[in-house]
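Internal ticket - ligand job 287, nicotinamide-adenine-dinucleotide:
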Amino acid sequence: MNSSTVLDVAHSEASSTVISASSQQRIAIIGMGAMGRRVVSSLRAGPFNGLAIAGLDPYADAQALKAGLGVDLFANLDDLMAWKPTVVVECAGHAAVEGVVAQCLERGVDAIVASVGALSSDELRTRLHDAQEVGGSELTVVSGAIGGLDALSAARGSGIESVKYIGRKPPRAWSGTPADGEFDLDAIDKPTVIFEGTAAESARQYPKNANVTAAVAIAGIGFEKTHVTMMADPTVNKNVHEVEAKGPFGQLNIRLENNPLPDNPKTSWLAALSIEDAILRRLQHVI
Ligand SMILES: NC(=O)c1ccc[n+]([C@@H]2O[C@H](COP(=O)([O-])OP(=O)(O)OC[C@H]3O[C@@H](n4cnc5c(N)ncnc54)[C@H](O)[C@@H]3O)[C@@H](O)[C@H]2O)c1
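stdout (structure tokens):
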């Protein structure tokens, strides 16, 4: 796993440069939902004219995607493999990391993964590691809806004493999670803790909210040592992520207030931007 790609290196100079299309790169987006479509639109609007892009999504409308985004859509992995992608970009959910992504890595195709929360499973991390060995391929894990993870990762060199993550969302944003039922979400009128525990426990109980905590755990001190608090907070109208880390290096505080993607209020726009950033770095050979 390419842990350096969790880093959040600024690339503003590189992204403002007009680049010739990298004809060797053939990009396949796994999952053509809100994030996948956003990523394709941004790539189409970017400096890489003629970039080969395809999609894999058995549930999406092939004709609509071809007409709207100019993307060939495949419904199964064998057909996508015949298209010969050089990199697959997962925007589909945890199950796709276990299935499609692992198979692509085994078959020698690099992968960029948005559903970082899937990596809270020790078994899956081992499987993906082995798949990279077998295929001679590389997995890139993006920072997604959080940032500043380069500093957290660097701080490990001094030994980190503690990492605390606090996530706040408006109460209704927790609908469809275990908090929905345990709490009367509509009646919450002050910041309320709905979960407190390790990143490992939070990934088990709140798998759909595990992407950020997983990215923090991977960059920092792991799933068992990272402390997670999740709050239903009527005083916020965005998804707010805070990370506090302490150690001999000093203290690190990160706070992000994320706007949602217009097409999916549960997905932060920054998460799509993070995927785009990872693709651009690959195309521009910028680290
Ligand atoms: N790292 C982060 O911070 C972060 C933040 C938000 C979302 N995410 C991840 O990104 C994923 C995509 O987000 P979204 O807003 O586009 O979700 P979405 O629900 O709008 O779209 C998901 C798409 O994936 C497709 N899909 C499902 N299973 C598939 C499979 N096995 N193979 C191919 N396609 C499949 C669905 O048909 C759908 O079109 C989320 O599931 C989440 O895990 C990560």
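Auto-summary: The longest helix spans residues 269-284. The longest strand covers residues 239-247.
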